[in-house]
UniProtKB/TrEMBL annotation:
It is found in: Endoplasmic reticulum membrane; Microsome membrane. This is Cytochrome P450 9e2. Heme binds at residue 418. The gene is CYP9E2_3. It comes from the Eukaryota. The keyword Glycoprotein does not apply. GO terms for molecular function: heme binding; iron ion binding; monooxygenase activity; oxidoreductase activity, acting on paired donors, with incorporation or reduction of molecular oxygen. Belongs to the cytochrome P450 family. It comes from Cryptotermes secundus. One of its GO terms (cellular component) is endoplasmic reticulum membrane. InterPro entries: Cyt_P450 (IPR001128), Cyt_P450_CS (IPR017972), Cyt_P450_E_grp-IV (IPR002403), Cyt_P450_sf (IPR036396), Insect_CytP450_Detox (IPR050476). Pfam families: p450 (PF00067).
């Protein structure tokens, strides 16, 4: 009896020691190199609260970022994997722009064999294959192509307006699939659902509008859906929410809109949209197209459709959509993307040995990862005072000059940034 107790104790002790060693064997990586880092937990590293879904990864990055304050970069452990978290905007610029050749790849761990469609997408492609595909795709985003697309996209808006019109007028019609409910003469619309369907439709139409032929290109189109519809619909939903929560800003915007519409005789054309003052600012063309179609929607009949906000001190969707549309609203969109960047983290994978130009001089080897904490930078009071405040004026002509490079990164940075953004700049 005593003997078997000994055996059990010994076995448990041995298993615990082996378990501990297995769960910590990489966790001295940064201390050995004198790199500032966060204390890891066996097996989980610094990912415990993310693994148990207590916080999201971007939230966790805010915590890491704050705990590493005072350092230009620091080390964290993604389970057993040591990862460098870049904090300093200058360092971010070096890695993503100046020394990009050392960090051509993103950290996507999806293999082409397991997931051929996503694995072959521009987002996941590596090295030379990424370069080739990026230069193949870039000409698809020229202004003449955009104009062709524009016609197709406005058709999406018409279809949506037809559908909504039917929902209002035909009281017997059953609305299936969409999250729209009828409350007397009012349609209660779930905005994220509406915008997701809408952006999906827009991207599908644009993608077919370009007429892709090759198999590899089909993978890119599939990726455009993934990359585009959730980001764009999140942006539109967040923009609606922020404007609804800030009636003062909304009414200022409304005045600007009314003035713009007066100049254009109530009609906005593709050229007028693209000729607008703030267009050189950061917003992607798919959004402009989306916004234009929303404008058509408003112009046709949204006057009839009062959405749930109408009785509250907030605003009707009519005003919201109108507000979202007008391009002087770029600063509003830009500020929305600051507060709620749909992609809160960037990742780069080292492909050529690289020594970080900061103290201590840590050397990254091929296969090592770096994280760039977009969400945390956007909410850092050193770069954006009173960061939780929705203040589009931060991006006005007068103020935008004081925004430090590489602290505002909703579309990423360097040659591997969002192709959707490039899409805009080429128009
Ligand atoms: C509000 C909307 C959008 C946001 C905030 C957004 C943001 C981003 C970000 C942060 C990245 C990573 C950049 C980096 O690592 O430096 C990215 C990559 C990408 N985005 Fe977007 N995006 C949006 C819409 C779109 C749309 C509509 C498309 C479709 C044309 C698109 C296509 C892509 C592709 C293909 C990549 C990978 C680029 C590459 O690896 O070369 N995005 N996007």
């Amino acid at each position: 009896m005593l003997e078997s107790l000994w055996v059990w104790t010994l076995a448990t002790g041995l298993i615990s020691i082996i378990g501990y060693l297995l769960g910590t064997w990489t966790h001295d990586h940064f201390s050995k190199k004198n790199v500032p880092h966060l204390k890891p937990v066996p097996f989980f590293g610094n990912m415990g609260s993310v693994a148990f879904r207590i916080v999201s990864l971007p939230e966790s990055l805010v915590d890491w970022y704050n705990r590493l304050k005072g350092h230009k970069y620091g080390g964290v452990y993604e389970f057993l994997n040591p990862i460098i978290l870049l904090r300093d905007p200058e360092l971010i610029k070096m890695v993503t722009v100046k020394d990009f050749e050392h960090f051509v790849d993103r950290g996507v761990r999806i293999s082409e064999e397991v997931e051929p469609l996503f694995g072959k997408g521009l987002f996941s492609l590596k090295g030379q294959r990424w370069k080739d595909m990026r230069s193949t795709l870039s000409p698809a985003f020229t202004s003449s192509k955009m104009k062709n697309m524009f016609v197709l996209i406005t058709e999406c808006g018409k279809q949506l307006t037809d559908f909504l019109e039917k929902c209002i007028n035909d009281k017997n019609m059953t609305i299936e699939g969409c999250k729209i409910e009828r409350e007397g003469n009012i349609l209660a619309v779930e905005m994220k659902d509406l915008f997701t369907r809408y952006t999906n439709d827009v991207i599908a139409t644009s993608a077919f509008g370009i007429k892709w032929e090759d198999d590899d290109i089909t993978a890119q189109v599939a990726l455009f859906f993934l990359a585009g519809f959730d980001t764009a619909s999140s942006l539109l939903s967040f923009a609606s929410q922020l404007l609804a929560m800030h009636p003062d800003i909304q009414s200022r915007l409304q005045d600007e809109i009314d003035q713009t519409l007066k100049v254009d005789g109530g009609n906005l054309t593709y050229e007028a949209v693209h000729g607008m003052k703030y267009l050189d600012m950061v917003v992607s063309a798919p959004h402009i197209n989306i916004l234009f179609t929303i404008y058509l929607l408003i112009n046709n009949f949204l006057d009839y459709v009062i959405f749930p906000f109408h009785k509250s001190p907030l605003v009707s969707l009519y005003n919201l959509l109108k507000a979202i549309f007008v391009l002087s609203l770029v600063i509003y969109v830009t500020e929305t993307l600051r507060i709620y960047p749909p992609i809160g983290i960037l990742e780069r994978r080292c492909v050529q040995t690289y020594t970080l130009p900061a103290e201590p001089h840590y050397t990254l080897n091929p296969g090592d990862f770096v994280y760039i904490p977009v969400y945390a930078l956007h909410h850092d009071p050193d770069y954006f005072p009173d960061p939780e405040k929705f203040d589009p004026e931060r991006f006005s002509d007068e103020n935008k000059g004081s925004i430090k490079a590489c602290t505002y990164l909703p579309f990423g940075s360097g040659p591997r940034n969002c192709i959707g953004k490039k899409y805009l700049l080429s128009v």
